[in-house]
Amino acid sequence: MLSKSQYTKYKGCPKHLWLYRNKKDVLTPPDEAAQKRLARGQDIGLLAQKQFPGGVAVQDGWKNPAAAVAQTRELMARGVPAIYEAAFLYDDILVLVDILEKTPTGWNIVEVKSSGKNLKPIYLDDVSIQNYVVSNCGVKVEHCYLMHINTDYFQTAAKTDWKQFFLLTPLDAELTPAADISQDLKDIKTLLAGPEPAAVLDKSNCDGCEAYDYCWRNVPAGSVFEIFRSNAAREYMALGILRVQDVPPDSCNTPKLNHWVEVYRTQRPYIDRTAVAHWLNKLEYPLYYFDFETTQPVIPLWPYSRPYQQIPFQFSLHIQRKPNGSFEHEEYLFEGKKDPRYGCVEAMLKYIGETGTLIAHHAAFEKTRIREMANDLPLPREQKDALLRMSERFMDTETPFKQDYLHPHMHGSSSIKKVLPSLVPDMTYEGMPVANGGDAMNAFDELYFGHLSEAAARQLRRDLLAYCEQDTWAMVKLVAALRDSVAE
C-alpha cells in the first residue's frame, strides 16, 4: 500500500522511496529536532481543525485502513461539516486528508502545514495525490487548499487572532494532472520492483534526509561538494574527480574557487593580506563583540511579534575600549515570563555607547533583530532611534573568511563553527552542555515552559551564559588571528 508521504518521497527523490520500502534499516531515525518538528506539526494540525468547527476525527487510519475508510464514508453520508483525517483508498493508495470540508455541492480538501508562506513543490505533490485518490473514489472535490502560517501576521494583542494566523491558499490551478500522476504510479511500481537506483547527490536536497548518511557514506572529507554547487560537483564526479585536491589548478571560473583548489592541494591557507588589512582598518574603537541567542515560537508568545520570528532572549558582549586594551564582559539573559526584548533593549542601551564598531559573525542576523525591536516594539522614540543607529555600526567577522582568508580546515565554509577551530584550535564547543544555537533554543523552552527544579534552572542558566560568552570571545580571538595574519 502506498501513502501520500511515500508518493512525495518519490517525487523528491526516487531512491528515498526505494530505500524506505526495500532497505528501511539503512535510514537514520529522526533526531530530537525532527521529532520536535513533527510534534509542532501535530499541534498546528489540531489548531487548524478548530477553525473548522463541528468536525469529527477519523481514528487510526493507518492502523486499520478499512475501518477508517468506512467511518469516513459514514460521516460523509451524515453530512458533517468537516472530517479530520478523512481516509480514502484507491488503487492500493491510502491518503488521509487533514481536513475534508463540506460545501453545499461537494467537498474541499485542506492540507495543513506548519510552515510559513513559501509554497514548496512537495506541498503541491502532497495535495495532488490526495485530490487524485479522493476524486477517483467518486467524491466531488470542489477546491483544494493549503492551510499554513501567515508569517506576516503581526500580533498586537495578548491573544492570537487565528483568522489572521492561518493562510488558506487555493491550489486548484497548480495541481498535477491526473494523467501525470497515473504515470508516476506506474513508474513507482517499476522502481520498487527493480534494483537499488543510484543516488543523485545534491547538498540542498539531501540535507536533513533520513537517507543522507547512507547515500553519502562514500563521499570523503574534502570532496568537491564542499566548494562547488551540486551540479558542478556531480560533473567532476562523472570525470572521476571526487576530491577538491584533484581538481586541475586554475581551471575554475572564479578566482575564489581557484584559491580554494590551491588551499586543498597545498593544505596551506590562502590570505589576501591587503583585503584583510582593509577590513581591520575599518574597525573603530571602542569595539563591541556582540552575539544574540533567540527563540523562534511558531505561535507568538508576546504582543508585537510574528509567527516564527527570531526573538532575542540573551546576549553576550565583550568590549575593548582602545587598541591593546583589556576586555570587559557584559551579558543579558531573560527571567520570568515577560517579553525578553524589553530587558534586552534596556541592557543594550546601557552597555553599548553611541560610537565604536559592533562586531558579530554573520552580522546580518544581529542587525535584523535590532531593527525589528526598534520597529516592532512600542518604545520611546529616542530608544528606537538609538537602536537603528546601533544597527548601522556592525562589521561582520564572516566577511574576510568568505574569500580573503581561506583555510583547509574550514572545508569551504565561513561559519564560525568551521572558522574557529581552524584558526583557534584550542577553543572548542565540545563537551559544553549548551553547544550551539539549537541547544540554546531548547534551553529557553526548558526555562520558560518546563518544570525544572530551582537548582536545575540555575545550572541551565549558567550553561547558557557560558555558551553565549564563548561566542563573543571566539570573535575576539578571530580578530586577533586576522591581525596576526597581516603582521607576519
Structural commentary:
The structure is a single chain. The protein is an alpha/beta fold. It has helices spanning 4-12, 14-22, 32-49, 65-78, 121-136, 162-165, 178-193, 203-206, 212-215, 230-238, 255-266, 273-281, 340-351, 364-376, 381-391, 400-403, 416-423, 437-449, 454-487; strands at 2-3, 56-57, 82-90, 93-102, 107-112, 141-149, 166-170, 270-271, 287-295, 311-320, 327-333, 357-360, 394-396, 405-406. The strands form three sheets. Strands 1, 2, 3, 4, 5, 6 and 7 form a seven-stranded mixed beta sheet that branches. A five-stranded mixed beta sheet has the order 11-10-9-12-13, sandwiched between helices. The chain has a two-stranded antiparallel sheet with strand order 8-14. Helix 1 (4-12) packs across helix 2 (14-22) and helix 18 (437-449) runs antiparallel to helix 19 (454-487). The radius of gyration is 27 Å and the shape is globular. The mean pLDDT is 96.
Our Rg estimate from Cα atoms comes to 27 Å
Shape: globular
Q: Give the amount of beta strand, in percent.
A: 15-25%
Q: Based on helices, strands and strand pairing, what is the structural class?
A: alpha/beta
Give the integer mean of the pLDDT values.
Answer: 96
Euclidean distance between termini CA atoms? 66 Å
- What percent of the residues sit in helical stretches (DSSP H or I)? 40-55%
Low-confidence stretches: none
The biggest beta sheet reads: 7 strands, mixed
DSSP helical segment count:
19
Number of distinct beta strands = 14
